[in-house]
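Appendix B. Chain record.
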Amino acid sequence: MKKLILSAAIVLGSFSTFATTLPSSTTTIKNVSILQDEYKEIKADEVPDAVKTALKTAYPDAVIEKAYTNEKKEYKLDIAVGDQKATVYADATGNWIKK
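Structure tokens predicted for this chain:
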């Protein structure tokens, strides 16, 4: 009887060792690519009048420090209002773009 109980314990113990799982060492690498529009610097005088008008309407005291444009005719304007600086985006018709 003792041998029967001992052999049953050994058999049940061997099943539990096969049931354990090893932690997976698989690592996942994610490639994240950010598409950036290439803006080229232009003179502040080259900014269309529609964009300048929209800027004066939205920010009456704003001064254009730098201006950039891309192939889509979108404009990136580095502006200063008093001692605060900001970057705003607009299309050629003066509509603001949220980025």
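Further analysis of this model is presented in Appendix C.
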